[in-house]
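Subject: design request, 87 residues
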């Protein structure tokens, strides 16, 4: 049976905390070590993406985007050549 785990990204969830930023940096190193992309996610309580997009108020949506932006910036500032995606 082929092992397709090598194509799966390392996924890290962020919430805007310093611990989450540290976790994103650690995950970037792990993704680089495994030679896979890094996916940084922010999770909310909605079950569907379209529902979440409509239901999240302006401030909650901005907070989620800011969490992702800050985590991506921290990973890029670390200078690690890893592909980063967000959700």
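Subject: RE: design request

Done. Sequence follows.
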């Amino acid at each position: 049976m082929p092992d397709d785990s090598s194509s799966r990204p390392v996924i890290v969830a962020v919430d805007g905390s310093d611990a989450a930023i540290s976790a994103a940096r650690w995950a970037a190193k792990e993704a680089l070590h495994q030679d896979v992309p890094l996916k940084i996610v922010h999770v909310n309580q909605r079950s569907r993406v379209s529902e979440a997009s409509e239901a999240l108020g302006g401030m909650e949506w901005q907070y989620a985007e800011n969490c992702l932006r800050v985590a991506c910036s921290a990973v890029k500032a670390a200078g690690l050549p890893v592909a980063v995606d967000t959700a």
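The longest strand covers residues 10-13.
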